[in-house]
Amino acid sequence: MRKALPIAAGLAAAVLVTGCAKSGLDRTRPNEFAVARQAPLVIPPDFSLTPPQPGAPRPQDTGPAEQALQAMFGGAAPRSAVEKDTLDAAGQNSVDPGVRSEVGDADTKVVDKGSTTRDIVAAPAGDGQVARVTTP
């Protein structure tokens, strides 16, 4: 029993070594360069780079989000005639530039949303840590 284990290990090692010798040393490999002729590297005839325009933004200066939007949607597309007519009918060019200052005017007519909305709007700014419920 003691002699059987070393003999079995020796036979296994001999089988492994002979297997490696037969498959690794005698193997002839195909020459991958002889399979197909390598074509020379050439620049395509329509390959033309334009020099950068003076004052034009560099591509590296735009952020990734801007580059993604530009790649997906392209630049600003011209509006169609229907879109122009719709915007003109909606009053695109008749917007009052001072509309934001008129909103807080006392003469502005508003709808009363109730005391709860007034309390929420008039609440002091904060992170809500000291919020309390008050009952009238």
UniProtKB/TrEMBL annotation:
<feature type="region of interest" description="Disordered">
    <location>
        <begin position="89"/>
        <end position="136"/>
    </location>
</feature>
<dbReference type="InterPro" id="IPR021395">
    <property type="entry name" value="DUF3035"/>
</dbReference>
<dbReference type="Pfam" id="PF11233">
    <property type="entry name" value="DUF3035"/>
</dbReference>
<feature type="compositionally biased region" description="Basic and acidic residues">
    <location>
        <begin position="102"/>
        <end position="116"/>
    </location>
</feature>
<feature type="region of interest" description="Disordered">
    <location>
        <begin position="44"/>
        <end position="65"/>
    </location>
</feature>
<protein>
    <submittedName>
        <fullName>DUF3035 domain-containing protein</fullName>
    </submittedName>
</protein>
